[in-house]
Amino acid sequence: MRDVLAHLPIAQENRTGYQRTAFKHWVDADRDGCNTRAEVLKAEAVVAPEQGARCALSGGEWYSPYDDRYINGPSGLDIDHLVPLAEAWDSGASAWSPAEREAYANDLGDDRALIAVSAASNRSKADQDPSTWLPPAAGYRCQYATDWIADKTRWGLSIDITEHGTLADALAGCPDAPVTVTLAR
């Protein structure tokens, strides 16, 4: 993973023109009646929820690795874009087509891209990168840093110098395990 980090392009970030609506999200790409949010919830459930009409989910249980806790029922969960939409915009997605931004916002092709976490932890994170926010659960930080680098690599996004330093510091205390990344673009 350290080698992958070393190959990410370093560039200044620019939020000019960012609007969350530039990333159409929670679509039903496979037209099965369940949008991206529901697909992630179904895939990550520790105890499967019941699925009703129009993919309404009820019951079930999930593990939120950001804050190391279990959540009963889907209403206490947010689906986090591991690399937030605003951060993606800052790091290169501003130059993408609307279709590429939609694909990013609904990426079910890599389990690291979207993650079910407690609403409180997701809102605490907001649109921050690792230089200003890391998961409160210290035991998950190596995985978080690794997944962040993999997601940025998958989508050809850059990192800024502070983000690079924080990720390098985080990885210094982690096992240097091999990671596979399938490029999305």
Question: Please, could you describe this protein's structure?
Answer:
With about 180 residues, this protein is an alpha+beta fold. It has one domain. It is built from seven helices and six strands. It has helices spanning about 1-5, 35-45, 85-90, 100-105, 120-125, 140-155, 160-170, and strands at about 50, 55-60, 60-65, 70, 75-80, 115-120. Strand 3 and strand 4 (about 70) form a beta hairpin. The protein is globular, with a radius of gyration of 16 Å. The model has no long low-confidence stretch (mean pLDDT about 95). InterPro entries: GmrSD_C. This is GmrSD restriction endonucleases C-terminal domain-containing protein. It comes from Streptomyces longwoodensis.
